[in-house]
């Protein structure tokens, strides 16, 4: 089985707490009195995971915070199995190639209660140590669904009574004009510069934009996602209070 590595105290702790396949942990020499490092060592012992204290010079390009964990690749979720259980929201990433944006979206999606993330097999950042670190371990707590065709996945969602919403700078509707609280929705976010591809825009039931008050191109995609998804949170919280 192939192996990858993750780094950073929070990312490694979250992987251990989630029962991720951690094969080995390397800790920097001389770490003493750090509560998170002590917790990592405790969990490693409990789960009989090999760990050692070494120099981490060859990982100096990474902000490893004194800990590297070698892990098995994440297990991608299956879309058909995902749809078998009651779900409310999804985000579809169309060509997000920056791992920092990918990781930030995963983290925000988990915090906002999104049920899953769909990515294509090609033209999208894969799950790497940078993605895991940027997500602060959130990737271990939200289903990541990898599909061969986003178009086919969207059609399957529609066949299962999902509404598809695409974020597009040229849309007529602002993001806050959609009633998210009363639908199962999948939100498509496109890559910076390119945006959502034309075939996916055509398949969307709604297209929305974030109004720009100054003459500037757009927000970073992870920031734009945060703005939109927390409007859905606001609407859902308001709807629950009225019940």
Set down the secondary structure blueprint.
Blueprint: E1 4-7, H1 9-17, E2 22-28, H2 35-46, E3 50-54, E4 67-71, H3 79-83, E5 89-94, H4 99-111, E6 117-120, H5 129-134, E7 144-147, H6 150-159, E8 163-167, E9 173-174, E10 185-190, H7 198-203, E11 206-209, H8 221-242
Parallel strand pairs: 2-3, 5-6, 5-10, 6-7, 8-10, 8-11, 9-11
Antiparallel strand pairs: 1-4, 2-4
Describe this structure in words.
The chain is α/β, with parallel strands linked by helices. The protein has 2 domains: 4-71, Ribosomal protein L30/S12 (60s Ribosomal Protein L30, Chain: A); 79-242, 3-Layer(aba) Sandwich (Alpha/beta knot), CATH 3.40.1280. The chain has 8 helices and 11 strands. The strands form 2 sheets. It has a 7-stranded parallel β-sheet. It has a 4-stranded mixed β-sheet with strand order 1-4-2-3. Helix 4 (99-111) links the parallel strand 5 and strand 6. Helix 1 runs parallel beside helix 2. The model has no long low-confidence stretch (mean pLDDT 89).
In short:
This protein is 34% helix and 21% strand. By secondary structure, the chain is of the alpha/beta class. It has two domains: 4-71, 60s Ribosomal Protein L30, Chain: A; 79-242, SPOUT methyltransferase, trefoil knot domain (Alpha/beta knot, 3-Layer(aba) Sandwich).
Q: Total number of β-strand segments?
A: 11
Radius of gyration: 20 Å
Indicate the percent of residues in helices: 25-40%
**N-to-C SSE series?**
EHEHEEHEHEHEHEEEHEH
* CATH architecture label of the largest domain: 3-Layer(aba) Sandwich
Mean pLDDT: 89
And the CATH topology of the largest domain?
A: Alpha/beta knot
Largest sheet: 7 strands, parallel
Any low-confidence stretches, pLDDT <50, length ≥5? Answer: none
CATH H level, superfamily name of the largest domain: SPOUT methyltransferase, trefoil knot domain
């Amino acid at each position: 089985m192939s192996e990858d590595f993750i780094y950073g105290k929070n990312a490694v702790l979250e992987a251990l707490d989630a029962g991720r396949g951690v094969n080995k942990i390397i800790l920097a020499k001389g770490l003493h009195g750090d509560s998170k490092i002590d917790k990592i060592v405790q969990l490693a012992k409990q789960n009989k995971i090999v760990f050692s204290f070494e120099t981490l010079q060859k990982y100096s390009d990474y902000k490893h915070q004194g800990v590297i964990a070698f892990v098995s690749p994440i297990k991608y979720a299956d879309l058909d199995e995902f749809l078998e259980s009651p779900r409310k929201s999804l985000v579809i990433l169309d060509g997000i190639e920056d791992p920092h944006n990918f990781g930030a979206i995963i983290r925000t999606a988990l915090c906002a209660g999104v049920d899953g993330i769909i990515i294509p097999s090609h033209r999208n950042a894969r799950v790497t140590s940078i993605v895991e670190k940027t997500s602060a371990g959130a990737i271990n707590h939200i289903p990541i669904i990898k599909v061969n065709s986003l178009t086919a996945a969207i059609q399957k969602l529609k066949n299962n009574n999902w509404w598809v919403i695409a974020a597009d700078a040229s849309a007529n509707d602002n993001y806050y004009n959609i009633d998210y609280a009363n639908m199962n929705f999948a939100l498509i976010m496109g890559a910076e510069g390119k945006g959502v591809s034309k075939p996916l825009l055509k398949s969307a039931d709604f297209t929305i934009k974030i109004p720009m008050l100054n003459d500037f191109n757009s927000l970073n995609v992870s920031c734009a996602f945060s703005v939109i998804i927390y409007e859905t949170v606001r609407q859902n919280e308001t709807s629950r209070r009225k019940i």
